[in-house]
Amino acid sequence: MSYADGYFGTTADYNAHFRDAFQVLPSYVAAGASATSYSLASALQEAFSLCTFHQPQMISADMLLFDQSAIQCVDPLGAPVTGVGYNLVLDSLSRQKLNTFFGKVCSNHSLTFYENDKKTFSLCPCSAACSKSSCAEQ
Hints:
Layout: E1 4-5, E2 9-10, H1 11-22, H2 28-47, E3 51-53, H3 61-66, E4 71-74, E5 80-81, H4 85-95, E6 97-100, E7 103-108, E8 122-125
Antiparallel strand pairs: 1-2, 3-4, 4-5, 6-7, 7-8
Helix pairs in contact: 2-4
């Protein structure tokens, strides 16, 4: 089976670039971390694609994620979206079903984050391990 994405290319491309950079082939941990980074970057891009940034030259990461006055967002139909950027990213991750060089990646809603009662997500290859999550809908 051949996997690919728009950033790393195919699995063979990823392996070759990793070997060129580090003089060893990547472990599954390195490959999984790279796929997770690609997934997060895609979620960030999607989360803020319909937002206007107030004073963009002054926005920090904390403001972007936690200050409701830093951004103004709309949904795909143009209706205003309330909340902070953090919630936009979580919502984007919750909908994500992404093909990567590592395989299909999607959110697993079975984990909970207990600090501040926020939900969190675990990214996993879409397989039997995710059969009770949105991965099963692939």
